[in-house]
Design a protein that fits this description.
This protein is an alpha+beta fold. It contains 10 helices and 14 strands. It has helices at residues 39-65, 73-83, 89-109, 116-160, 211-231, 235-252, 336-339, 351-355, 365-381, 409-415; strands spanning 5-7, 21-22, 167-168, 171-178, 189-196, 199-207, 263-270, 276-282, 288-290, 296-299, 321-324, 330-334, 358-359, 389-395. It is elongated and about 95 Å long. The termini are close together.
């Protein structure tokens, strides 16, 4: 193994699956449906949407089957109010009209339509129906404004974090951003991939904080990375450029209170010609190297370093760790939203233990890997993650004549040596 490389726990059988078994789930597929809602949530929403009609039907049955002194007016009154936030304007109007006609018809059936109590009930239901229509219009207007805000947020996020091409510099690439909150797009996790004269350079990071301040810091980091990745001859120089960019931006914004002042990050450089990967870790979770034969390695930093943007606490030269990256192998970089995802008992999701012994072959291997991780984390947490999660996978394609396991005989002999 190269420097900074250690075998992950359960690397050969941590997932309980034999080596060589691939995952066939289509990339990006979500078994819970396009919205990512759990079956329980979907059933609850279906019930709530059916509730207005159910209230009217139950009210009619109750009124017919009970003595005249009993009234179902509360049920008829509740029907349009329940419909207001969930139904369209037309449907809410129809529900209100249906409830009003039901009350009126029941009183005429019992020849009590002119009684004071009957008139009061009809007036009450009609009044509530009109209020429900007004509530519906207010809710719909708020939904439109929220949808507009979400669209702007999504556009901003995609502008800052564009989806990388599936093939960059001869490598298979996939990236995925999973927000902790449903329908939320703004966050502080980041990734970028760039083909440069020095090789394919990658960054995955996590900015302190949330919201627009974090997005501003993400924009600074990615902008500085893209410029430095193209210009600097070494990965160490790229890291120093990012350090200076964050320090400069923090000074311009009067320090940490106005600017998200530090970023944990992992920088990677994959030369075009050598079967190597160079890594600089700035306080970030170590990436995983998934070899083509199912073995897994956690690439820990040989010299731990502070996150980017904390240079005022100490200065030392960055030193890149160099590790073999053979054909068929895949490099997984992630934020702590993956490794710190907890289940109901407080147990963390362990990607090293889960992925050991599994392979994800072919050009779509990175996509399948990220889709698998996303679904497993969702199941592990019960759909309730508390932190955003950025995932990026880079695979070096097999050379001509390599076997299906992802490495040829020479590569197995080399990479299997400690």
């Amino acid at each position: 193994m190269g420097p900074g490389e250690s075998e992950g726990e359960g690397a050969s059988a941590g997932s309980g699956k034999p080596a060589g078994r691939s995952v066939s789930r289509p990339p990006g597929r979500r078994p819970r449906g396009a919205s990512g809602k759990s079956p329980v949530v979907r059933h609850e929403r279906t019930f709530v949407r059916a509730l207005p009609l159910l209230l009217i039907v139950v009210g009619i049955v109750y009124d017919i089957s009970t003595p005249p002194q009993f009234t179902a007016a509360p049920l008829f009154t509740a029907a349009p109010l329940v419909a207001a936030p969930f139904y369209s304007l037309l449907s809410t109007t129809l529900i209100g009209a249906g409830a009003s006609l039901a009350v009126l018809g029941l009183h005429f059936k019992t020849n009590t339509g002119t009684d004071v109590d009957a008139v009061t009930e009809v007036f009450t239901v009609v009044t509530v129906a009109v209020l429900a229509v007004l509530i519906n219009r207010v809710v719909r207007r708020g939904d439109e404004q929220l949808a507009s805000a979400r669209s702007i947020a999504e556009a901003a996020q995609r502008a800052v974090l564009p989806q990388p091409d599936p093939r960059i510099g001869g490598l298979d690439v996939a990236a995925r951003y999973e927000a902790a909150e449903a329908d939320a797009f703004i966050g502080g996790d980041l990734y970028a991939v760039q083909d440069t004269p020095h090789g394919v350079r990658v960054i995955v990071g996590d900015v302190r904080g949330k919201g627009m301040g974090a997005v501003a810091a993400v924009a600074v980091v990615i902008g500085a990375f893209r410029e430095a990745a193209e210009q600097e001859t070494t990965l160490e120089a790229v890291a120093q450029r990012l350090e200076r960019a964050l320090a400069r931006e923090g000074t311009r914004r009067d320090g940490l209170d106005d600017f998200e002042g530090f970023t944990t990050a992992i920088l990677a450089e994959i030369p075009h010609s050598d079967g190597l990967v160079r890594l600089i870790n700035r306080g970030h979770p170590g990436p995983l190297l998934l070899r083509g034969d199912g073995r897994l390695c956690v690439l820990s930093a040989t010299e731990p370093a502070l996150p980017l943007g904390m240079g005022e606490l100490g200065a030392w030269p960055d030193r890149a760790d160099e590790t073999e990256f053979p054909p068929g192998a895949m490099l997984l970089l992630h934020t702590d939203g993956l490794s710190e995802a907890r289940d109901s008992r407080g147990e963390f999701y362990d990607p090293a233990a889960r992925l050991g012994g599994r392979i994800f072959p072919g050009p779509n291997g990175p996509d399948v890997l990220l889709a698998t991780l996303t679904e497993e984390v969702r199941r592990h947490t019960g759909g309730g993650t508390t932190d955003d999660m950025a995932l990026l996978a880079v695979r070096r394609p097999l050379a001509a004549g390599s076997d299906a396991a992802g490495t040829d005989a020479t590569e197995i002999d080399v990479t299997g040596r400690d």
